[in-house]
Every structure is written in C-alpha cells, then in structure tokens.
Protein 1
Amino acid sequence: MVTTLLTALALMLVLEGLLPFIAPKAWRDTFRRITELADGQIRFLGISSIVVGVVLLFFLK
C-alpha cells in the first residue's frame, strides 16, 4: 500500500512539473489568475478536482 501511494505521489509530481518546465510563462500567468479568484471559486475548483479524482478511481477499480 505504501509503495502504491508513493508511486502515485511521484507520478503526480511529474505531471505537476510538466507545465512549468514546458511553458513557464503560461504557468506563471495561470497561477497569477488563480490567486486573483475569490475563495468560493477556489473551493469550487478544489471540490471539482476531488470529485473527478474519485470518479476516475471508481472507474479504474
């Protein structure tokens, strides 16, 4: 179980690092726009990501 979680964490870090590596200006602009969002909008993005992740896990199992 620990190996699977560490593998998932490693894969997440690789995927998260792709955009700043490939297109740092676009990443910076996107990050700046995200910081300007209201708390409710950020929470909505967060819960949307959680729901999509759970649905993907459900279909992959």
Protein 2
Amino acid sequence: MLRPASQRFRSCIGAAPFCAAMLLLGAAPAQAYFKGVQHAVTTVNGLSVDQYSWYDSHKLLRTVSLKQEGNGNPGHGGYAVQMTYQNGTSTVTVNAENSSDGGFGYFVSHERYRDFTDGSNDTIAHKVFHKDDSPLGLSFPAVGQMLGTKSPRGAAHQFTMTYHHYGTIDPIPKNRDGSDVRPTPTDPSKLALYQMPITITWVFQGGTDYPRIDYAVDLSQVGEADRVNFDVRGPYGVMVFDNGADGLVDTAMWGDRFHFTTTTDPATRNSTWTWSEANDGARYSALTAGGYEMGLFEPKPFAKSALADAYADERGSTSAAYNNGNGCIGETQLIPCDWDWPYQSIQYSLSYDDNNAPTNFKKMAWGSSAYYGTGKSLKRVYDTSSTNEPLRGWPKNEEIDYSLCLVLGLTTTDGLTRDAAATHKNCASTVPK
C-alpha cells in the first residue's frame, strides 16, 4: 500500500529521483497536495525554467518545466522542455527531443493553399514571398508571467507572442464548397503580412492528472474576414515520452467523429488501420511507445468542439475497405494520406523510401480545418465528401479560443488518452484570473 505523502517525504533520501523531485517543491508534499500547485524558478537540462509541481488524482507528484525567455537561455522561451510523473515510486521523465522542434506547447499554423491568377496552387508565403508558410512558434520572442486562478488548488502561467500570416488586402470570400470566389493575385502590392497575437496559458490543478493548455489567436490586426486562411496546430512539438528510451512509435491513434488506430506494431506507412468506430467522447490524439503514452484531448464532447476538422477521404473507413484495400489515393502507402490526418503526428516522420520502416520521432500537434480567417460566406466545411461540420472561421470577438488537456502515463488497452477523452475529465478545470 502506498504510504501518505507526508510519510514518504519524511523517509526520503534526497538522492533518489522521486525524493529529489519532491524537494523542489519547497514545502512538505502533504501541504503541497492540499494547497494545490507549487512554483519554483530552477534549472532543468541547463535551461532556466518556471517549474510547476502538484499531486495528481493518485496523490503522486507531477511536474512541468516551462522554458523562460532570456535569463541566460539560448533561443526563445514559451514552451515545456521537461515533464515528470510518478509510476508507483519511480519517476518517469519526459524531456524535449534534441532537435530543432524539440519541446512542447508552442503554436504553429499553416497557411491554406490557394489558386492563383497564374493557375498555380500554393501558399502566399511560399509562392510570392519565398517564406516559411508555417514557422515554428518557438522561433518567436515570448513574454511569460504567472497568473492567479479562481481556485486555491490551481496555478497558471501565460505566454504571449506575435505570430503572422500572409493574406490578401482585398477579402476573397468562399463558395459553398470552400473554393475562393476568385483567384488570389500574385502581385505583392495586393498582399500583406498580418500580425496575429497569440496567448498560450498553461493551467495546473492539484488532484488532477492532466494540465490544460488554453490558446487564443487574436485576429483583430487582420482587420477583416477573408484576408487570411490558416489552420491551428498548437500545441506542437516533440518530446521523448518513453522515459528516455526514445524507442519506436508503436501506435498512432486519434478521435474525431470516429476513433482511429493503427493496428500493426510498430506504426509504418504499411500499417493496417481502422477509422470507423463512432466516437461518443471528445476529440483526441495520441502516440504510444514502449508501454508509455502521450496525448491530447479537448475537454468537451465532440459535438461542442471549438474547432472544425479538415477534410479526410478515409474518415469513416478501414484499411481493408478504403480504396479496395490499396490505401492512400495519391501516395503509395496503406495508412491515410499524410494530408488527411486530422492532427499532425508521425505521418511526416515516417520514411518515404521504405514503407515498412518505423520511426522514433514522436512529433505531436493538434489540427483543424484550414479555413480559419474565413467569414460568413463559409459556415460549414466538408470533413468527407458527404458530411460537414460547422465552422466559425471569424468569431464575433475576432479571437479563436480553444483548450486541450495534456496526457502522460502508461498506456492502457484502449489507450490512456482515449479513456480520458471518453469522459473529458481529470484535467485542470480552474480558470485563470
């Protein structure tokens, strides 16, 4: 039987990983559990961080370390570089991948491909200005601050930054099928770079397992609907979530209107899959590796989701039934076409030279329709050739708001994230002040 936190703390030897993590709290663990969340400015993996620590639903310690902007750190801050949780009495450590997109929680957004007056199809950023149409949010300066919450058991940390997208000066509405009513000009004088302030708020709450990340995308500086078109993929990043093993990804799974899972282990481009079982819970996305899992879920039912899905021809089918069992139409692979995955995941990490090759690169991100920034001309978007979802591409308050819960733990038979999404609970629910 697991002893009370206060007894475990008194018998702790500081050299043990579990004890070392508890000592970072700066208060007795029993007090920390009942008070909610502790904050400390410390150093993790050579980086200055704001570290938040709390006791979860099993009265086991969890931490999230958020990289600070400046304070001796290279590059920019505004995202998680380490997370830990307890598996019994041992500590599972989740570190940022040592790569250009290592870390987690930063914002990324892709411009929508358009038809241009010269007959080409591309993004404005790439075609006209030769710029990245989906820059990583970790490359932008961020301003961080602690926030109070409306619950004494909670804590919150907010980052603000300014993202951008190219768009047209004259708005281009959509037809009912989502096509632009006229081509996009190639003349740079008819195009503009629009600033989009982003607010990212991490919320922690004692007694829950999963922190919540809130996103707000401010469209007010765009000024008018139908100038820009983009999707949202934050939170975004790569973490080694299998306790340092950095092993192969066993399974990719997600939920939108239907549950999706690869059914061969490890996941490859030739993996079989199902995407046809109705999902009565929330949207989610997850990866598993070596018995560990990392995932995201929206803390509300699918029918009340804040965002609309992108189109996917394979949605509602299986690898055996879709395209007569021949897989993606347009790419030689059995798994759904890369551009049809509703959430960015491992699809761009798998080898294009060997369809049977797995990957250990554990990218995870959210996803949405690419029509955000669109006004009243497009109120619904197709998610298959015969079904559609409501779209609020230009909210009345000129701000796109959504929240996601971050899951870490040992995987379960159906998937830890899928289990959490079924009830959309056990996630921080307190509200920042």
Protein 3
Amino acid sequence: MATVKPKVIILIGAFWPGHESAGPNLSVKAMCESLSNQVDFFLIARDRPFGATEPMVANNEWRDLGWAKIQYLTVGPTGAEGLADLLHNTPHDLLYVNGFFDREFTIPAMLARRFGRAPHTPVVISPRGEFSSGALGLKNARKGLYMALVRLLGFAKQVTFHVTSEEEEADTRKLFPSNRVERITNVRPLFPLPPYKPGNLFRLAFLGRISPVKGLDVALEALALVTERVDFSIYGPVSDPAYWARCEQLIAALPANVTAHRDGELTNDAVPTAMARKELMFMPSRSENFGHAIFEALCAGTPVLIGDRTPWQDLEAAKAGFDIPLPNPAALAAAIDRLAAMSRADYAQWRAGARAMADRFVTGSTARADIARLFLALTAMHTSPKGERA
C-alpha cells in the first residue's frame, strides 16, 4: 500500500491576494513548495486585506496553488467565520498556526479544539516574535488576560512552539517551560541580485508595518540628527493610525537636509528591485524573531541599519550594515552619516557584504530538513504504522 502523505493545515490569516507586504507569506510559501513532495498542505486565510469591506477572492472553496490548497474565510467580530467547521470537516494530522495572540484565526481555533468543535491533532504555534519584551509591552493588558485564559483552560497543553532565533527560544521557554520548543529558522531562498544604480543623494527605506514595534518613530528621531542630505521612503501598511499620526508630526519637524515620505505598500515581487534602488534599509525594530524585510534587503545587496534584537548580528564586521542597541538616535544618525559620506568604491564593498551575508544564511541553512523532521515526527503521532489515518 502506498504511503499516505500527512496533511497539515496552516492558519496564516494574511495571505495572497491583498496581503503582499507580509513577510511570513514568503516563508510559508517557500516551506510548502520545498516540502510539497512529503506533505499535503492546506492554507486557511482571510478573504480581504485589513479594513477592506469587500472580499478580493471567492471564499468557502478550496483552490489549488500547486504546492498547497487554500481556502479563504470572511472575518467577523469573533474571528474567521466557519473556521471551526472547516477544521472539523478537513481531515488533517497537524495544525500549524502563525501568531499566538491572533484573534482572527489562532484564538478561535484553540477555542474550537478545547471545546470539542475541532479535532485534537498536534498543534505547532509560530509566535512570530510576539513573546519578546518589546512586543508583550504593547497592549499588555489584553495579552495578560489572554495568557491567564490560556493557563486556566489548558490551551497550550501538548503544543509545540516553532521559533526562529535564540532570543525567541529563550522568551518562549520562559513563558512555557513545559512545552516543546523547536528553534528552526525560516525557509527562504536567495533571489537573483537586482541591478543597482547610484542616485544623486543617499536613499533610505523603511519596510514594514507602521506600528510601534517596528520602530518608525525611532528612525525619524534619528533622521532629525543626520547631517548628510538623505531621502527616506516609507513602505508598509498603517496598522496603527494614532501611531502614524505621531510619525507624521516627526516627519514635519525634520530638517531641510532630510526628506521623508510614505510611498504606500510594496508587493512581494516588487520588494527586491525597490530595495536594490536604495543605499540603506533603515528599520530600527524593537524586536524581530527573523526579520523578513532585513533578509530581503541583504539579498538585494542593500546594507541594513537595525536594532540589536534580531537574529542578524555583527553586521558592521561583515560590512553588511549596523545592528545598534535601541533607543540610540545619535548612534543611528552617525551610522547613516558614515555610509552617506563614503566614496562609491568604499560603499560598493558594503553592498557586496550585504549580499554575502544573505548568501551565507541560505547556504548554511538546514531549515528545510529540520522543519520536515518536525512535521513528520508530529504527524506520525496521528497516523497508524501502515500510513493509514488513525
């Protein structure tokens, strides 16, 4: 009898179409593509971008992507509508969810499992950096209440956490000392190096959600201290309007040698070229468990200026950028001025260093084999020795 491939349901919420800026899209897609010969993947996502009133795709039907099947759901006040029924009616051996505090998919799914409305298959949760001190400090009252509920109802029993950095592993073990925690980086391929053409002034870019954790305000405070003439492009969705209003005030107060402007969102396909057209990617995030935007900038040959709480370390020694403890606007500004004042020949070494760092990450990664091992081990708990559904 032929071996039956295990079935894995992935709850990702923001996925194509209409969610092009989300970095996890790329790692989830790469993971599914690389393992589709071993695992059958089923993705469940929202049917429209945040804030949209109309769906961008028909929901309540499975679509074949080649490397996975996907179904889109409408999200209502209590989360993704029909999620419990979909989990109940879709045979699967493992549930993989993105985000621990996600109110649209993760929390409804865990409630459905706890109260018998969805199967008790093994669960893997990828917290996506939500357990860092910087992230937990945002909306901490709501998060604290949910954590108490998790412990009271036993939501996290027999849950495996998938983390991507040493720091995230430590944060997760501190909160859930009895759970299995697997540290496996994201599956990310190296894309072809886009062309670079120097501009008339030093160009920087911010790429990420406009929310406190991503540190746009810190970037703008640093730019106020820069002495070189620079131009700053801001790419990303506004997920916190009040925070963006504060950032607009900081933009208005910038000195004459600094221009800053929001240029909307970038599709995933447009990111490599957009990053390659900048001299520096500037995102002093308060915390990143991986940093998809950081990887994409490095892959495009663009140095990065980031905080020190990400997996991307020792950038200056590699001539790939700077990782600086935050907050430190003066140090961030000094790094920008240093790069902006370089000769083209010296700066070219930093572009080569950025690309080399991305290349070393991809070449040395065992993520594909490690995630396959994890999935196959966990799904084996839900199948018979003969490969038939238990």
Protein 4
Amino acid sequence: MFFLLSFNTFSQSIELIESFIGYQEDSEIISFTPNNRIILSGDYQGNINLWDLKYQTLIKTIKAHQLPINSIKFSENGKRFTTCSNDSSVKVWDFNSGKLIDSVKIKDIPKIALFNKKENGYLIFTENGEIIEKKFRYKKLYHKLSQKNTFLDAILSYDKKNIITCDEKSLKMRNYISGEIEWEVFHPSKNIFSKVQIHSQDTLVLWSENGDINFWREKDDSHLLEINATNLHNRLSINKHCDIIISGYYKDRPFLINLNEIDFSENYKTDFVIANTFLSSLNKTYLVSSGEERRHRLMEIKKHRFFPISVQKRKVADKKEFITNSRYIILEIWDNAQVDGDTVSLNFNGEWILKNYGLVRAKKQIFLKLEEGESNELIFYAKNLGKISPNTTAINLIDKKKIKEFEINSNLDENGKITLINTSKGNLSQNNMINKSNY
C-alpha cells in the first residue's frame, strides 16, 4: 500500500510516496550506501536487508545479529561497513559481496564501531565508556581508554589525528594515539549532544537529544550557530553518501534546506525553528524521515526543488509571470535607470545562475532551459540597494516569438520573482500552479 505525501515551502514542491522500507514493519536503521541504487536497512530482529531502490525489491537478507542493531558505519572508501548490536557483537562486512570479514564478541554492549585510522581494524565504543581496538586477522583486543559515561556517538576528525565523541557528559576531542582530551565542551543544561558529524574540514555539526542543531569550529573550539528544533532527530544514520535536509519555519514562513548549504555569513540565530530532519540520497531521489523510537521511513521523492535559505528568509513582494511554449529562453538583465551601484543575484529553480552582479547599462545575456509543463521560478535577490532604494532590475525575456520587458524591485527584506510557465506539453492545470498544502 502506498500513499502520497506532499509539502511546499517557498514554492518548493516535494511529493513523496511512502515506500517499501519501514511501512509494513518498523525499521530501526536505514543507511544510504556508496551505490546510489542500493540501500541498507537494519530491522529489530538483527537482520541486514539490502534493497534495490529502482525496483523497490529486497535483494538479500543477512542474519547479522540476534538482537537489534545499534549502528551501521562505512569505511572511508565505502568497501566495508560495520554493524553493532545489543547482542554484544561487532561485525565487519564486505559491501559488494555481503560476506563477513571479521567479528568479535565483547563483554559490554557496543554502541558504535568505526574503522581505525589505517582502516586495518576498527574502534569499538561501548555502553560502559570503553574504547577498544580490534585489528583484522588478530584475536587480541586493545583497550585504548575507559571513562565513566556511555558513548552516544563517535567519529574521527577530518585529518584523523583525533577521536571526537559525544557521551552523557560532554563533547570531547581526544588525541588518537594518547587518548588525552585536547578540548571538551559540556552539554547545555537543557540538553545533551547525542550525535556528531563532520560538516566541513574544520567544522562539526552536533545534534542534541531534542533535535537542536549546533555548529562548532573544531580548531579554535568556538560555537558558530544553533538552530532550535521542535522534534527529535532520532539518530538518523548519517554518512557521506547522503545529504541532510531540514524543514521548519522562519518567522511565519516554512523553509526547506540542504544542511550542507548553510552559509555562516547569514544570520540563522533568530526566528529559525526546525520541525523535521531528513536524510536524502545525493541525487535527491529518496528521503528518509526521522520517526519516534528510531522508526524511520524511506520515501521516494517524485518532485523536488530546494531554494537557498538566504532566499527563503525574504518575502516575495514583486511577482510577475511569463507564459511561453518555448523550452529555451534568453534572459537579458541591465539597469535601465540611473546606474547607482545596484548588485543583484539571480536564482533559477533553486540554483544560482548569477551571483553578486553589479548592474550596468549594457545588457547581459543568460540562457535558461525551462522544465516542460512546469512552473519555473526566477528569483531576484538584492545584495545591496545601491545609492537609491530599492534595487531595480530591468529584464527582457525572449523566446522564439516574442520579447517581454519587466522591471523587478527587490530590497534586503523582499525578493522579486518571475514565474516562467512552459506550456510546451499542453496547458498546466490550475492545481499544478497552486502551492500544495504544507507537510
């Protein structure tokens, strides 16, 4: 049984069909993989399931553990992955063949298992606060360190010189070799950091138990940003084979963004609230929703369009429309009034096609390829107001039959927009041009 879900923010239309994982049976973990056609899921019986996304069929079930799986982690090259379980075992698998490479049983419950620095073994982080190293082809376990607090999450730093952990007390960065704490950040009194991930070379992204997202500069131990949340993220299986999508509200308006596109020069600290956290495939074809008690759902994205959050922060005041049956349009942009230093950026269907362009008297041409039978959004984003407010931009839209001139106003609080409607596949129904209800 399938049913349609849809939500729309700032003309960002996403249609979802609830899919084959997490519908009939609750799924504990859903993990994207190096192969964008294959996804892993871990069920409550300790099975690993490999699914073909294109045909929505189960490829293989591996009886991996006797009890639920705690985590799935991939190696840097994506050829291997680890599984941890409440049955006290850790196992390493070959991704392509599905064969077991290594396994170990410990006295404690393993929470996370990461491949070590050289990827010739793995680090096990336990419920009782131990870090244990296991090398391939060796039975001996090496105890690296012990602490009093349960590990909630762990990663290696970008340069692999440090181990970064979240536990019930704090976020810690330890020297990989000595285990000594190089810096420590205690949890806010209201919350606990329960998940950590590399955001960029020197920046970490942290999830709190209540779903709040924090960004932390690793090198100088400085807090960059916090975005508040109204729901839990529920330990989604984040890795480099997926993007993180968040939805929520900015003041009274919904927003939807890719977390990788956060620009720290923007002010996100005020009036932003996260309502949902999702994982998506890198090609934006599939979406994993967070659910209560880690019961996630995998859904197919039928339609998507993401606008930068800097665009979504502003209201759309100046709206115009251009209807054409041409697939390709020539856009001309210039300043038809006093050249006073106006600078504008253009966003087309969620992608920047012109950034920080200083308007001049001469016309600049840009070619646009329209989506057939769809509404196409051209957003005018003022970077400054020049000497005379507002930012005024002259536009020609040229198809094979006509030229239409527009004058678009925008300022630092409001965007201008032209909706280009391509009717080459017949007239659009009114429903296709109206924003769908919010999800």
